[in-house]
Amino acid sequence: MYNDNGEKMIKSIKNIDINYIRYGNEDGQRIILLHGWGQNIAMMKPIGDALAKKHEIIILDLPGYGDSSLPPYAYSVYDYVDLLKTFLDELNITNPILIGHSFGGKISLLYASKYQVQKLVLLASPFKKEITKTSLKLKVLKTLKKVPGLNKLENIAKKHIGSDDYRKANPLMREILVKTVNLDITDEVSKITCPTIIIWGTLDEAVPLERAYELEKLINDAAVIVYEGCTHYAYLERINQTNNILSNFLGE
Predict the structure, then answer these.
(1) What share of the chain is helix, strand, coil (3-state, %, to 5)?
(2) Domains of the chain
(3) Cα 72 to Cα 15: distance, rounded to the nearest angstrom
(4) For the whole model, what pTM was predicted?
(5) What distance in Å separates the CA atoms of residue 63 and residue 75, rounded to the nearest whole number?
(6) 223-233 pLDDT tens trace
(7) Helix residue ranges per DSSP H, 43-168
């Protein structure tokens, strides 16, 4: 067993320093957690902590966020997927369980369309072009303020992702955001065959609920779970329910 907080490590992949933590049960299934745009490891740790007793947990800061370095050029989602594959190969991880929120979910979708994935969990994951009316920074912080018991996460979010408007002030990250938002991966999604659950809030303003049902139709073995009255961060707003669902889905 690793220690409870995980071993914080840096791995250099494709000239990018990837910050990640690895903890939990070394003999369990490998679960990879991928955060959303403008976020970091801390935003996925409430899930990792709940699953760590029976599973091995790997959570990484995606390039450009947290303590990972910037990509060397304007990455596409395909570039993020290729980097993730190399990262997992370096760790000798095959056939992982992928859990992704928002941007991390889009990466997970594309990864699962190309490589073997044991199970897939999508948390408000876009796959078509979406128009965002409000600053992502404001959406995250406003949402976290409304979620009972998540004040600590709000402070973490302010500390790690509150500067430079989620680094969108950086021209490189702005270009990556445009590429990501405009990319439609519908054709790729239809190739996914692994068991998939899709968790979505009815009040999601970033990615509409209808996308959840579209994903359910595109993926051969998928089911939608709706959280009434929850936002783009539904998985955190009802974290206990989320963790119970995941425990059942993973066969505990």
Answers:
(1) 40, 20, 40
(2) 7-249 (3.40.50.1820)
(3) 8
(4) 0.86
(5) 9
(6) 999 999 999 99
(7) 45-51, 77-90, 103-114, 136-146, 151-161, 164-167
